């Protein structure tokens, strides 16, 4: 133990030379920098090339920025009102150019030196054959900056900081002061073995060069090292959690399969796909081990996760336990309940549904039935989490569409069986790119259904502008004539709820006018559940041909005869959501279609999203594009899951490093789970210091 290290890095930032109380207060509020540790971990987000000086005669408009040195010949203030500006004439012997300021003119007039030598940095723009830079960075030429040859780190800043003259240069100076003092206290956090194997630079060098890179190569190495470390510890923690669960948490042992065999023999409505069979095997193996199962089941929309869930539930019941299936919305819960009820009843099992709409008496009966064990299976929404819901012996929890459930809610389900935690199967239809899955669900075992039931035709997707609506309606009419049903979906985003609601209603009316011969259903979030359900049921029974809806139908709704999905204002949906919506069709034997309606004016990124949808039906490919376009922070449900904890690694780009880091973490934990080997001391120390930190924070907050 070297106690001085944490102590040093916990020093409050105002004690750093050149900071002081006023700036410290600013750093606290603006950047949440309180200690030396916080400052040193405030990494630059990009770097400017100051390694060389450009000459005026070689400037081009394509340059993102240029660094020049030369003489400020003279200046004058020109223009009036908001156009008032100070224009300086700058020369370096190869040409002349203008330096332009709209702000701070009086200060500049007082402080600029005629014929003074300066270093200038900024974006060159050509104007009438002459180059100029507006609001350049300007420094008096000194022996240091004349030497050039450095990369300027650029830090996240706020307007308030800039107004108080705390810019990237100032932060870089603080970093230099800090690092010069701090290097002796920096401890290596990775074992020597790993550093050698992956040719990583030391933690000390990495911290130095991430802030003050000597050259491009050093910067690259610094980033690589810090990313590796971050991802290594991220994976280490997840794998460790998984190990702890595997060794410490017992699970009920389910070996009797009679109910399952009987179901296969008498009631299975179709042949399972090979992928479904494989996943069922994986689950059954887990349920035999005597350890709690924590498994993620990933399967694209329509891949048939529900039947897998039901078969797992049967196994639990066959072994004297109860099982629950939790869905994120009432519509979905209802649909699962309606879908599973015939199977359950054919097997002589009692299944019930519990949601926010269940009345008081119904609730009481359910509470009693769960406690005395007469209810075998329960389907429901968040209502299942409520305290009065207690089981005689809950053995298996299935959570559908995980992205809507937080980790805390998962834990509340566990608590429903305090004697032995129930096994948990989390199902998600949001395909998650491998890199993201590793960091989000690294503590879960993963099963994947990567095969659709036989006979499914790939959905045909097209993109149409709003101006082609008549043609689209014509197409819908043809499909309905063939006996198909149609979804028309409108966005409903909370921030613009009123406007969106109006769009939905206007849309509904225009569809009603265009299709007087057909019946319409409408479903949206503002309706009471009973009305929603009534409208859905009419659609399911084919009494209506068109369902106009908001995204409440996004997840899981299953109406095999509906073969056309029209998405209005498709530009306003994210890729994952579009894919989810499209997944509502293509569930029967008929050819299905998805029509993406948009305005003609579209951003480049939106076009890319739409093109991706038109090009592919593959959820994993779509998830990858999504990750690249949006970055991981935005992907649904990731906010509370720890992804945002990554400071420097970028899941969209650092897949290779992540893979290596995960393999190392796994190998070390396989080899030495308690970190007793001397070569693993750096890991042990780091884990302990992080834990101590967390304890401190817990005490404070
Ligand atoms: P998801 O994985 O999206 O939840 P579902 O479980 O709702 O998919 O299944 C989609 C549809 O496919 C349902 O109508 C279901 O009955 C059907 N299905 C599931 N597995 C098979 C299979 N092996 N063969 C044929 N149809 C299947
Ligand atoms: Mg489903």
Which ions, cofactors or small ligands are bound in this entry?
A: adenosine-5'-diphosphate, magnesium ion
Number of helices: 25
The termini sit apart by 27 Å
User: Which descriptor suits the 3D outline?
Assistant: globular
Largest sheet: 7 strands, mixed
Task: Report the uncertain regions.
Answer: 1-5, 635-644
Query: Order of strands across the biggest sheet?
Result: 6-7-4-3-2-5-8
Q: Share of helix among residues?
A: 40-55%
Q: What is the strand tally?
A: 22
Output mean pLDDT: 89
Task: Please identify the structural class as seen in this structure.
Answer: alpha/beta
Q: Hey, roughly how much beta strand do the residues contain?
A: 15-25%
Radius of gyration: 31 Å
Summarize this structure briefly.
Helix content is 43%, strand content 18%. It is an alpha/beta fold.
List the helices and strands and how they pair.
Elements: H1 4-9, H2 20-31, H3 36-40, E1 46-50, E2 66-78, E3 85-91, E4 96-101, H4 105-111, E5 116-122, E6 125-127, E7 130-134, E8 137-140, H5 143-147, E9 150-154, H6 159-163, H7 168-182, H8 192-197, H9 203-211, H10 216-248, H11 258-266, H12 274-288, E10 294-299, H13 305-318, E11 322-326, H14 330-346, E12 351-354, H15 360-372, E13 377-380, E14 394-400, H16 407-414, E15 423-428, H17 434-441, E16 445-449, E17 460-465, H18 469-481, E18 485-489, H19 497-514, E19 520-523, H20 529-540, E20 546-549, E21 562-567, H21 575-582, E22 593-598, H22 604-615, H23 619-630, H24 655-671, H25 681-700
Parallel strand pairs: 4-7, 10-15, 10-16, 11-13, 11-14, 12-13, 14-15, 17-22, 18-20, 18-21, 19-20, 21-22
Antiparallel strand pairs: 1-9, 2-3, 2-5, 3-4, 5-8, 6-7
Helix pairs in contact: 9-10, 10-24, 11-13, 12-13, 22-23
């Amino acid at each position: 133990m070297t106690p001085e290290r944490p102590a040093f890095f916990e020093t409050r930032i105002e004690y750093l030379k050149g900071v002081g109380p006023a700036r410290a207060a600013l750093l606290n509020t603006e950047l949440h920098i309180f200690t030396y540790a916080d400052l040193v971990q405030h990494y630059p987000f990009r770097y400017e090339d100051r390694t060389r000086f450009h000459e005026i005669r070689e400037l081009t408009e394509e340059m993102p920025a240029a660094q020049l040195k030369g003489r400020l010949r003279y200046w004058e203030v020109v223009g009036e009102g908001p156009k008032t500006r100070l224009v300086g004439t700058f020369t370096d012997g190869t040409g002349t150019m203008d330096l332009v300021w709209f702000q701070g003119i009086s200060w500049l007039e007082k402080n600029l030196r005629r014929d003074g030598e300066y270093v200038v940095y900024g974006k060159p723009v050509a104007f009438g054959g002459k180059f100029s830079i507006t609001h350049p960075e300007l420094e008096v030429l000194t022996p240091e900056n004349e030497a050039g040859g450095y990369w300027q780190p650029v830090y996240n800043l706020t307007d308030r900081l800039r107004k108080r003259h705390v810019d990237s240069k100032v932060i870089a100076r603080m970093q230099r002061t800090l690092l010069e003092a701090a290097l002796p206290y920096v401890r290596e956090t990775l074992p020597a073995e790993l550093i050698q194997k992956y040719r990583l630079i030391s933690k000390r060098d990495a911290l130095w060069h991430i802030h003050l890179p000597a050259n491009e190569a050093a910067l690259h190495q610094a980033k690589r090292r810090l990313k590796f470390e971050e991802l290594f510890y991220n994976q280490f923690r997840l794998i460790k959690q998984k190990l702890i669960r595997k060794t410490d948490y017992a699970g009920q042992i389910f070996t009797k399969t009679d109910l399952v065999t009987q179901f296969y023999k008498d009631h299975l409505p179709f042949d399972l796909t090979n992928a479904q069979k494989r996943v069922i095997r994986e689950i059954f193996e887990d349920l035999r081990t005597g350890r709690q199962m924590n498994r993620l089941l990933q399967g694209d929309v329509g891949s048939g996760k529900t039947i897998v869930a039901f078969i797992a539930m049967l196994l639990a019941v066959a072994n004297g336990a109860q099982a629950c299936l939790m869905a994120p919305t009432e519509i979905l819960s209802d649909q699962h309940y309606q879908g599973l009820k015939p199977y359950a009843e054919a097997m002589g099992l009692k299944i019930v549904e519990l949601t926010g709409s269940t009345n008081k008496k119904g609730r009481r009966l359910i509470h009693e039935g769960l406690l005395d064990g007469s209810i075998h299976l329960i389907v429901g929404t968040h209502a299942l989490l409520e305290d009065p819901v207690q089981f005689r012996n809950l053995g298996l929890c299935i959570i559908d569409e995980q992205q809507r459930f937080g980790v805390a809610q998962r834990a509340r389900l566990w608590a429903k069986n305090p004697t032995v935690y129930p096994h948990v199967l989390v199902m998600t239809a949001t395909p998650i790119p491998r890199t993201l899955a590793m960091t989000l669900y690294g503590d879960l075992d993963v099963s994947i259904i990567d095969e659709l039931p036989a006979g499914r035709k790939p959905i045909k997707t097209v993109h149409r502008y709003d101006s082609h609506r008549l043609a689209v309606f014509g197409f819908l009419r043809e499909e309905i004539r063939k006996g198909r049903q149609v979804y028309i979906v409108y966005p409903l985003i909370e921030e613009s709820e009123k406007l969106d609601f109006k769009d939905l209603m206007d849309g509904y009316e225009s569809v009603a006018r265009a299709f007087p011969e057909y019946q319409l259903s409408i479903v949206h979030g503002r309706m009471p559940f009973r009305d929603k359900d009534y409208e859905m049921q009419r659609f399911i029974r084919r009494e209506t041909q068109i369902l106009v809806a908001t995204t409440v139908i996004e997840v899981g709704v299953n109406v095999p005869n509906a073969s056309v999905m029209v998405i209005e204002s498709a530009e306003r949906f994210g890729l994952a959501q579009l894919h989810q919506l499209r997944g509502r069709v293509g569930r029967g034997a008929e050819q299905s279609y998805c029509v993406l309606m948009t305005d003609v004016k579209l951003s480049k990124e939106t076009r890319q999203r739409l093109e991706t949808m038109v090009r592919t039906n593959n959820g994993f490919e779509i998830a990858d594009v999504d990750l690249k376009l949006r970055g991981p922070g935005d992907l649904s449900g990731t906010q509370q899951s720890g992804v945002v904890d990554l400071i420097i690694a970028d899941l969209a780009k650092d897949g290779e490093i992540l893979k290596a880091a995960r393999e190392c973490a796994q190998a070390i934990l396989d080899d030495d789970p308690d970190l007793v080997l001397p070569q693993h001391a750096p890991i042990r120390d780091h884990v302990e210091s992080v834990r101590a930190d967390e304890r401190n924070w817990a005490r404070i907050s």
